[in-house]
Amino acid sequence: MSAEIPVRLVFDAGDDDPEYAEELLQYLIEELRGLDLASIDRVPQSPPPPGTRGTGALELGALLIGLGGSGALLPVLAGLVQDWLNRRRSGTVRLKLGDDEIELTAASDEVQQRALDEFLRRHGE
């Protein structure tokens, strides 16, 4: 059995309302559950400095998504995220795979599409 390919997804609603951002993230999570992903997990905040207690809080807007071993779902994941952003007409999502990262926005222009195509090509089979 192949290992999962971890993809870090970070959603930024573009405003200062964490409750609204969390609500939007929950909608995105619901749509992600429709894909055949190995896992969808919330990301805990960075560890606290030594000698202090951690809060157990989650990093706002951050998910760790496990793709199946082949990574064939990466284009599907990127397409779902782009469609979701376009329907909301606001916000950004950063997808990070290893050291490689791409930022998707609600504006689907030609430059962004070329960048996404290149990102997917680098991580293709």
Strand fraction: 25-35%
The spatial strand order of the largest sheet comes to: 2-3-1-4-5
**What is the name of the CATH architecture?**
2-Layer Sandwich
- The strand count comes to 5
Q: Estimate nothing, just give the exact number of structural domains.
A: 1
Portion of residues in helices?
Answer: 25-40%
Determine the mean pLDDT: 83
CATH class: Alpha Beta
Series of secondary-structure elements, N-terminal to C-terminal: EHEEHEEH
* CATH topology term: Alpha-Beta Plaits
Separation, N- and C-terminal Cα atoms: 17 Å
User: Uncertain spans, ≥5 residues at pLDDT below 50?
Assistant: none
Number of helices in the DSSP assignment? 3
Q: Layout of SSEs?
A:
Elements: E1 5-12, H1 18-32, E2 39-44, E3 58-67, H2 74-88, E4 92-97, E5 100-105, H3 110-122
Antiparallel strand pairs: 1-3, 1-4, 2-3, 4-5
Question: What's a concise summary of this model?
Answer:
With 125 residues, the chain is α+β, with helices and mostly antiparallel strands.
